[in-house]
């Protein structure tokens, strides 16, 4: 697969024009049978491509991202285009402004070719919760691409774009990256502005990116990161030094019951490779890991129930248009939201309701603190933590019927989300078999260190 | 803790402003019970003297000027399903 650098060189050498390149990608997307795109932004893409071609014709220098076709998860606003968040309730919602990350990409000259499919409001681990149909995994179309950023991961894996943006709340970038065999990065919480991202669970939501290799993923991250006054949780990352002697921590809790045999074997092989290349491997203990998913499934729905209260059928989006106000709310939200969304809103409302708030929500916040402290202690001994991204490779479409079994797909990704840590999923390609994801988790705000070590892995 | 009744589900769904039909109450009752059973394990963790964690960045009191972008106001009004002029129309709540 072509890298940004290859494309950049070809554009500069005039082997093809940016318009030709973009047209080729648009054609591929239009023919896609994966249901990975919800909307193709061809007019915008071709306009942007022309600007790049004009610059090249004027012999102006172009940036590393300039002319690169990128896809956007359909929960980020691209001005004047519909943004559905995978939900019926927003089927006609037109974005009134550009999200911070979109503005950054446009300014860098990246080409936005379309909006990708996702689980409704980014809630799910398979894209089966999209109101617009499931996305198929390009490696095996009978399987899910993972979720919730399944459309973005599938689009990159199928070469329908060279990179894509996703959002990750409990694993929604890393898990689909693992299932589709691409690189997926979730930055430290606070590294990227969520202005213009449709909110799901605000203490966890983070925008990140997918590409075919670590360097390209990093280039996209470097463009979209940074402090934004419109998102008060953001900050600028400081430069860091990569230690000369890297110690890799392997938490035993991530290899316990429930892990698929092939996943375990492939991850162990990778650990051995690092060892053979002289990196020190240290077994570490993260005792609160087993509680992470329980904490996540209290805090996340609680925040979801508050964030999704805004869909009232009055200000924007689908409206049942009932003449009675209460009936209008009840019917708009019953018809506009899918099953999983309603399940999480009701669960979240329950854990926040009078008499249960302390038992569930406050308790979960305390255990969340213990999980964060677990990582802080571990990073006193090691520089990076290595785990599998998911306990199994991609599962079959329709395989997981009850909600709880679906939730377990996030078991290795939720802890880093709760602690706000940067984490990347790197593909392990297995011959004649499904890809497996290797996860590297770094200390808070040391996103660059995660990339540096990910680049080492690529060269092992 | 997770003895959630059909009546509880009805009550919570109404608080959440979501209408449920009969069969759905049973489905959500079953789903929520199994999720609540799963999160029950948190009771095994001793959290005496542990502070609640509500944010991870440590940033506090970040403010900006409260300025209205009038162009955006127009864009936002375009999205309203039921309006009159520049006003949002809502159903009558007082008889």
Descriptive terms for the model:
heterodimer; A: 460 residues; alpha/beta; Amidase signature (AS) enzymes; 11-stranded mixed sheet; 15 helices; 39% helix; 13% strand; globular; B: 95 residues; mainly alpha; Histone, subunit A; two-stranded antiparallel ribbon; 3 helices; 2 strands; 38% helix
What is the strand and helix layout of this fold?
The complex is a heterodimer of chains A (460) and B (95).
Chain A (H helix, E strand, L loop, with lengths): L3 H9 L5 H14 L5 E4 L1 H16 L11 E5 L26 H8 L3 E6 L33 H8 L5 E6 L5 H7 L2 E4 L19 E6 L2 H11 L22 E5 L9 H16 L3 E5 L7 H16 L17 H12 L2 H14 L4 H25 L2 E5 L14 H5 L6 H6 L3 E6 L7 E6 L5 H13 L1
Parallel strand pairs in A: 2-3, 2-4, 7-8, 7-9
Antiparallel strand pairs in A: 1-3, 4-6, 5-6, 5-10, 9-11, 10-11
Helix pairs in contact in A: 2-3, 5-6, 9-11, 9-12
Chain B lengths: L5 H10 L6 H18 L30 H8 L5 E2 L2 E2 L7
Antiparallel strand pairs in B: 1-2
Beta percentage of chain B is under 5%
**Unreliable spans of chain B:** none
Most extensive chain contact?
A-B, 70 and 51 residues
Quaternary form? heterodimer
Classify the fold: give the CATH topology of the domain at 4-224 in chain A.
Answer: Amidase signature (AS) enzymes
Main β sheet profile of chain A: 11 strands, mixed
CATH class of the domain at 4-224 in chain A: Alpha Beta
Please trace the helix and strand order of chain A, writing H or E for each element: HHEHEHEHEHEEHEHEHHHHEHHEEH
The tally of strands of chain A reads: 11
Order the strands across the largest sheet of chain A as they lie in space: 1-3-2-4-6-5-10-11-9-7-8
Question: How many angstroms separate the termini of chain B?
Answer: 42 Å
Q: Look at the structure and give the mean pLDDT of chain B.
A: 91
Helices of chain A, by number, come to 15
Low-confidence stretches of chain A: none
Would you tell me the overall average pLDDT of chain A?
A: 97
